[in-house]
Amino acid sequence: MSASVEPGWAARELAAAHVVVEGPLLDQLTITGTDGHHLARVRRLRVGELVTAADGAGRWRTYRVERVSRGSMTIGADGAPRMEPCLEPSLAVAFALTKSDKPETVVARLTELGVDRIAPVIARRSIVRWDDARARAAAERFRVAAHEAAMQSRRARVPVVEPVADIGTLAGRPGLVVADPEGGPPDALPHPGPGGWLLVVGPEGGLDEAELGAFGPVLRLGVGPHVLRAETAAVAAAAALTGLRRAIPREGGHGG
Hints:
This protein is α/β, with parallel strands linked by helices. The chain is built from 5 helices and 16 strands.
């Protein structure tokens, strides 16, 4: 990490709110759009209150509210930029899509847990069947859910949300771990190496033999003896691996 940027967690600051902005963390920022409306009209922040702002790639800074207007807010820097530590090993989660708004909830919960990359996938037993237009629209909704969850959880890194893809596209990627009731405990998994883990969570009913066979030999992670909803399994398995991760104070890393 650069000697001029100290490590730290935005979530540790006693700030009234946290916002993720596009672009560099200048000495003065004006927050507009949906986030500006939320902070000014919904949260009703006042002049002088402390907030934190992040660039979505790990860098963050404290600010004071300088001006609040209808649907926007101007903030001035109150401290030097800092860098959120990276969590290692890196963790990506590919989860099979379910109906309604449950995928957005999964994306939000995975973001709160600190997952670096999220890959929504469609498996053979998935009920969801989207054409390209619906898949692109859904991916955009998932990115919005990740952005909002990063603000809520005060993350400085927003996870990468990949386009919706067939689960077969995961074959050959390093670090594959499949969530499976017959799998072992998280602390029995070997270290995944510099590529990190790619956790795969199938739909209700699980992955079929052809899908598992396409992955080749893979590690399996147990998530309890009972039958879980697909969205529950994704969050439970990610939480199990999160407990094995450690904070590394350096720039770069994942997300954003």
